[in-house]
Amino acid sequence: MDADGRLLKILCLHGYRQNADLFREKTGAFRKVLKKFSRLIYVSAPNTVPPLNSADGKDSESVDKRGWWFSAEDNSYRPDEPTECCKGYKESLDVIVKTFQEE
Asked: Is pTM beyond 0.85 here?
């Protein structure tokens, strides 16, 4: 809390193949500890991550998975491979800027 008694706002950004709702669920205990002092603001990335296919060729995921940017033009993210690609990065920055303006 600040000197005026307002709650501290904390921006929470999820990881790859998550979204704001999934991340919020995963941080339940953390939210409980901080709820007297802060307000956690969860934001979903604007980029939809392509589903992973199972061995039988069917979509193995039904949850809305998001990513902040892609490291390859095929909308994939490979953290272990050097790249000049940052597809979707500008859109993600726009979402974060908009969140700061609204909050």
From this structure: no
